[in-house]
Amino acid sequence: MTEVGTAMELHRLLDEAFAGIEMTPEAQDLKEEMRANLVVRVTELTDTGLRPDVAAQRAIAELGDVRSIVDDTRSAGSGTSAHTRNRVRPNPSYVVRTVVLSVVAAGALAAVVVAFFGLAVPRYGQLVAVAVVALFGGVIVADALGQETTTSYPLPKARAAGFGVATTLVLAGAGGGAVEFRDRPLPWLVGGGLAVLVGIVVFTYLGATQTNRHKPWMVRLQAAHEEAGDRFTEDPAAAARFGLYTVTIWLIAFAAFAVLSFTVGWAWSWLALLAGVVAMMITLARTLFAPGSGHPSR
Predict the structure, then answer these.
(1) What's residue 179's pLDDT?
(2) What is the extent of the structural domain holding 29?
């Protein structure tokens, strides 16, 4: 199925899901938000190897009961925050898994730590404990990244597993080095050091190739918050004034720092630098925002 065909199939399935629902402006906005969410989700699913038509059907199925979502949105009222309206409750089984694995990993880590304080813990026991910490740590990371959150979609299983493997490699290499390096430096450098290096490479690749996971409502919220920083782009004169003010503030702060250092001593001279930071932040706020307004001045 082509990309156009996938989009048409997705739109058809979404229209069927909204069949019989009164299309108020709020419902239409919700439908368009769902449409954007579904497009992103279908892309993620097809990246895992699913056929486009299967991915579209699964993405629609993941929505659940659309009518109840519309009803909940209408009953939420205009005073409810976007975060509350889009909140995703934690999966109870995920919470239980994480707690159990964390407790076991903490116990294994304690077995490694106490050995450094002179308590008798066999070396093989320490290595087993390191393996438990590394393995469980990787599972916890992979499991967490595979969960949907209020603001982000879950990572595909393969990519989440990649982060888990990288975590396991780094923890195993670093933990094994802590146990073995003093007595067996060369084997650790060959084994543990290589594991850490491979883990770092995997982390780097996964991080560099990661696409945006944020849901559309979160993207819109971020864009709204970024409008404040656009003040300097729209008003070069404001940027120039802020630059001059900043230079002046720090010239005075450094001069005061030097004077106080030679008079009252180091114990108090740092306050001049703190005052410089405070003055610069106040100047930035006054430059970006109009007095008495929570919005960027134009």
Answers:
(1) 74
(2) 3-85
Q: Tell me, yes or no, whether 249 lies in a domain.
A: yes
Asked if residue 73 lies in contact with residue 26, where contact means CB atoms within 8 angstroms, the answer is yes
CB burial of 1-21 (b: ≥16 within 10 Å; e: otherwise) equals eeeeebbebbeebbeebbeee
Measure the CA–CA gap between 137 and 98, rounded to whole angstroms: 10
Q: Are the C-beta atoms of 86 and 217 separated by less than 8 Å?
A: yes
Spatial separation of the C-alpha atoms in residues 139 and 172, rounded to whole Å? 13
Mean pLDDT to the nearest integer, 112-121: 73
Domain count, the chain: 3
**Are the beta carbons of 256 and 278 closer than 8 angstroms?**
no
Residue 121 and residue 202 in one domain: yes
* Tokens found for residue 214: 């944020």
Residue 144 lies in a domain: yes
Find the angle CA(286)-CA(287)-CA(293) to the nearest 5 degrees: 55
Residues 141 and 138: their CA atoms lie apart, in Å, by: 5
Res 225: pLDDT: 61
User: Is 77 a domain residue?
Assistant: yes
The mean pLDDT value for 13-21 works out to 84
Q: Give the pLDDT of residue 2.
A: 66
293 pLDDT exceeds 50? no
pLDDT number for residue 144 = 94
- Backbone CA torsion sign across 235, 239, 244, 249: positive
**Cβ-based burial of 33 (10 A; exposed 0-12, middle 13-18, buried ≥19):** middle
54 pLDDT exceeds 50?
Answer: yes
List, in sequence order, the alpha helices (H) in the chain: 3-17, 25-47, 52-63, 66-76, 82-85, 92-115, 123-145, 157-180, 185-190, 192-208, 216-226, 231-234, 236-263, 266-288
